[in-house]
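quick one, 140 residues, struct below
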Amino acid sequence: MKREYVELILRGCGLVHFSILIASAMVPRVLDWKTHLAPLHPFLRRLFWVYGVFIVMTITGFGAISLGCAPELAAGSPLARAFCGFVAFFWLARLAVQFFVFDASEFLTTWWLKLGYHALTLGFIALPVPYVLVAFGVWK
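---
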């Protein structure tokens, strides 16, 4: 595939990362974290929020690097391939969690929550593909 197309696809993936962050910002309200986390010890409540912030920072980094360094990633250097491999692994692991760990059905109470959940699932399926192709040197 032409390198320019790979760059464009990686930039698109960067935008998808930022779209996922929009959904992530709605999670505390939709899942009513204030009520559900209230019974926890303050340390555990803060730990929960800290984990969430670090996940947001990771996804922000993936998006920013994919947008800002698309030419370098598309070039397929060992570092670019390692980064793309890690991003692919991250999203494949998240997809496995989506199917085998989480049961969000009781929270999917409206059509727009169901739509959002399934749209995120599609993102978790689609995002690893270009990164796998770069990581394994298929796209050079």
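The mean pLDDT is 94.
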